[in-house]
Amino acid sequence: MSIRLNNKVCLITGAAKGQGAAEARLFSAEGATVWLADVTANAGERLASELGCEFRMLDVTQQGQWQAVVDEIIDTHGRLDVLINNAGIFRANRLIDTSLEEFHQVMDVNATGVFLGMRAVAPYMKKARAGAIVNISSVAGMVAAAGAFAYGASKWAVRGMTKTAAIELARSGVRVNSIHPGAIDTDMLVEVGQPEKLVSRTPINRAAAPEEVANMALFLASDESSYSTGSEFLIDGGLLAL
To answer: What does the pLDDT read at residue 35?
Structure first.
């Protein structure tokens, strides 16, 4: 059985729980050297200990913290092959009820964090003429997210940044793609409210396990997806096929 990420060095944000933790476990099992990053220290350190990985505190809205983590990885391994921009937050408010403070908070984590991550790793990947960046967006980055105005705006931003970065980095051998999950069985699904309503609208009629998102991230991080860049990959149980 092949080890699909053998010898690859990977950084995963939002890795302490949910989709990020599932990605960390799968990537480790597939031979990667994984660095976990999150603002939740206890859970992140426990997972790192379980997997034999490194954990670093990282507030993705802080440019200096990004640079410190990426520089440490480069100093340790000489390269960084994969970035999974997984960190994100959800807030449920309509346009007229969204405060400027809330809008900035959501955009800072979900969009600016992705921008800072891509900008931090891109020079090293370009120099190596290889690399894969996977940005976690949402179905809310494909269709309107009524009732979650700031969240929808942030996830559309991720989709747009992914495409632009993919074009800019393609000739340097760096691939950039986005994943757009629907109803995933994580804490965020509960935060969305009425998760059973979202699941009932999904043709497959269930929520996905975080591991199902991790499997898609694995494909995009691996050399198996070597001709895929600037693309959106849906994991939504058929929701947007309706």
So the answer is: 98
Structural domain including 36 reads 9-241
Residue 156 lies in a domain: yes
CATH number of the domain encompassing residue 104: 3.40.50.720
Active site residues: 151
Between 194 and 126, the more confident residue is 126
Q: What pLDDT score does 2 carry?
A: 64
**pLDDT at position 130, please?**
98
Q: Give Cβ neighbours of residue 135 (< 8 Å, ≥ 6 apart).
A: 85, 114, 118, 158, 161, 162, 176, 177, 178, 179
For residue 44, being part of any structural domain is answered with yes
For residue 124, what are the CA distances in angstroms to 72, 99, 132, 170? 12, 38, 12, 14
Domain count, the chain: 1
Q: Which tokens in the block code for residue 168?
A: 């800019």
Q: pTM score > 0.90 for this model?
A: yes
d(CA 131, CA 222) in angstroms, rounded, equals 9
Considering only residues 133 and 199, tell me which one the structure prediction assigns the higher pLDDT.
Answer: 133
Domain membership flag for residue 3: no
Contact in structure between 94 and 146 (CB atoms under 8 Å): yes
**Integer Cα distance of 165 and 101 in angstroms:** 28
